[in-house]
């Protein structure tokens, strides 16, 4: 790995007068406290490092070509990437500065230039509540000898999560950005104080290195190879790379301090879950006492689900708590079997349901539908598995349980609504699409015709006018 840029190379931010006190400079928002300068320099250097790309230009002479990539641009000179980051990304650098400064304050240690840039180390609070040194380069694999096939279409997509206590998520965020850039991965990674949730795509060599690196990190020692769900794909499955820090690792809309993953239901392996569902399908008494609950959104369960399930007709997971509260009577005295795509929503979803103290027992499918289908491709799950990337769905069987919204023919391939102002998904078969039925509803269909006559393209929004009339929290009659 290359050494970090030297302190003297740091460029002043936009609006700065060179000493960090200029009007309008992001640096001016930082109070002048001890160690703030070194912490800021370290944060800036780490951000630059996360954008660095190294390639062997001449293997025989062991020559390495280094450049930086950011915002769709390539920078061949270090000074240029410094200027770009100083102008466009200082808010992110300042977030990292605060995280580093806080850690230094907790440990009552000082940063010297030698420590800052030669040793390339920062302090990270581990889940054991002890302070340990975290060397960024230790957790970034050396890929200088690897030529990644960036045009590969036969790679794979990883889906994973890990609930664990992360005291400084911003540090992990910076590391994840650097790691994914180093491995040329695209995708989405959410980090919070309660853990990490990610789905990334790339060539198989890159995804394998990503798994190995994750498993070697001390924060994620509770993970194993089995926690990474694999499917055919690659970098093309995502528009770009998005890594960020959030309040919740999965957006349920409830403070993690109020409802913790630590209070989740009983985890069932795919084999155990399969037996439970089998008993449910064969026994009228079990059907009376059990609810098979789909924790996903309506557009997910529409194209694939377990037979005899209760699939909430909700648009997003943040509606799930209200759904439970509204229909609490349905769950009284019941055994509940919960499932979702990869298992993460069930962790806190089951914790929320258990907090109501009305169920006989709450179980959840470990590894989600993804792991179940690996072992039971022809089991009780019928249809496709919806995924949150450009593929929209993956298939392991030939079952089609949904239909074209226009003609009613069997169809389960989603496309984005053709109207630029809508981001809803639509099931429209090939014949109907050829006829021009490419919108999610009649409202959008008319809007699409009108917008084709005007050059302006409005930004997509979460809902269209017709879906805004949809019942937010449906009521289910007790059975």
Q: Helicity level, as a percent range?
A: 25-40%
Sequence stretches where pLDDT stays below 50 over 5 or more residues: 1-35, 56-62, 106-133
What is the straight-line distance between the termini? 62 Å
The description of the largest β-sheet is:
5 strands, mixed
Rg from alpha-carbon coordinates? 25 Å
Shape: globular
Q: How many DSSP-defined strands?
A: 20
Strand arrangement, largest sheet? 9-6-8-7-10
Percent of sequence in beta strands: 15-25%
Structural class estimated from helices and strands: alpha+beta
What is the average per-residue confidence, as pLDDT, rounded to a whole number? 81
Number of helices: 15
Search tags:
479 residues, alpha+beta, five-stranded mixed sheet, four-stranded parallel sheet, 15 helices, disordered N terminus
Concise synopsis of the structure shown:
Helices cover 30% and strands 20% of the residues. The protein is α+β, with helices and mostly antiparallel strands and 479 residues long.
Describe this structure as you would to a colleague.
The protein is built from 15 helices and 20 strands. The protein is an alpha+beta fold and 479 residues long.
Topology:
Layout: H1 36-50, E1 52-58, E2 63-70, E3 73-75, H2 78-88, H3 90-107, H4 113-118, E4 121-125, E5 131-135, E6 155-163, H5 169-182, E7 186-192, E8 195-202, H6 204-216, E9 229-233, E10 241-245, E11 266-268, H7 270-282, H8 284-289, E12 290-294, H9 298-301, E13 304-306, H10 320-326, H11 328-331, E14 335-339, H12 344-355, E15 361-365, H13 368-375, E16 381-383, E17 385-386, E18 393-394, E19 414-416, E20 425-427, H14 430-434, H15 442-451
Parallel strand pairs: 7-10, 11-15, 12-14, 14-15
Antiparallel strand pairs: 1-2, 2-3, 4-5, 6-8, 6-9, 7-8, 13-16, 17-18, 19-20
Helix pairs in contact: 1-3, 1-5, 3-5, 7-13
């Amino acid at each position: 790995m290359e050494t970090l840029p030297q302190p003297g190379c740091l460029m002043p931010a936009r609006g700065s007068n060179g000493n960090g006190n200029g009007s309008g400079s992001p640096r001016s928002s930082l109070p002048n406290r001890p160690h703030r300068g070194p912490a800021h320099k370290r944060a800036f250097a780490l951000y630059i490092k996360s954008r660095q790309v190294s390639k062997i230009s001449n293997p025989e002479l062991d020559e390495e070509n280094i450049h930086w990539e950011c915002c769709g641009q390539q920078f061949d000179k270090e000074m240029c990437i410094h200027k770009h980051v100083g102008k466009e990304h200082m808010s992110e650098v300042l977030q990292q500065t605060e995280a580093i400064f806080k850690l230094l304050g907790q440990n009552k240690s000082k940063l010297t230039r030698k420590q800052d840039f030669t040793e390339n180390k920062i302090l990270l609070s581990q889940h054991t509540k002890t302070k340990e040194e975290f060397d960024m380069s230790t957790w970034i694999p050396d890929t200088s000898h690897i030529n990644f096939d960036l045009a590969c279409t036969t790679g794979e997509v990883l889906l994973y999560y890990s609930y664990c206590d992360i005291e400084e998520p911003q540090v992990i965020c910076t590391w994840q950005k650097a790691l994914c850039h180093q491995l040329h991965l695209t995708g989405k990674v959410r980090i919070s104080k309660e853990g990490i949730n990610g789905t990334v795509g790339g060539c198989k060599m890159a995804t394998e290195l990503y798994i190995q690196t994750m498993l070697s990190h001390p924060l994620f020692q509770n993970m194993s190879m089995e926690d990474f769900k694999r499917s055919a794909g690659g970098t093309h499955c995502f528009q770009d790379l998005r890594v960020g820090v959030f309040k919740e690792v999965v957006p349920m809309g409830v403070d993690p301090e109020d409802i913790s993953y630590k209070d989740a239901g009983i985890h069932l392996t795919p084999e155990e879950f399969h037996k439970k569902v089998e008993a449910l399908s064969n026994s009228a008494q079990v059907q009376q006492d059990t609810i098979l609950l789909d924790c996903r959104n309506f557009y997910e369960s529409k194209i694939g689900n377990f037979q005899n399930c209760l699939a909430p007709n909700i648009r997003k997971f943040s509606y799930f708590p209200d759904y439970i509260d509204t229909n609490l009577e349905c769950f009284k005295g019941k055994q509940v079997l919960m499932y979702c795509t990869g298992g993460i929503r069930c962790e806190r979803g089951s914790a929320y349901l258990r907090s109501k103290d009305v169920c006989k027992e709450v179980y959840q499918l470990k590894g989600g539908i993804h792991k179940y289908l690996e072992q039971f491709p022809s089991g009780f799950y019928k249809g496709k598995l919806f995924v949150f990337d450009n593929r929209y769905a993956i298939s392991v069987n030939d079952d089609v349980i949904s239909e074209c919204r226009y003609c009613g023919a069997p169809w389960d391939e989603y496309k984005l609504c053709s109207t630029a102002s809508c981001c809803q998904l639509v099931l429209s078969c090939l014949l109907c699409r050829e006829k021009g039925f490419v919108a999610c509803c009649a409202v959008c269909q008319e809007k699409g015709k009108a917008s084709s006559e005007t050059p302006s393209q409005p930004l997509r929004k979460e809902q269209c006018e017709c879906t805004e009339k949809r019942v937010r929290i449906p009521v289910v009659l007790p059975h």
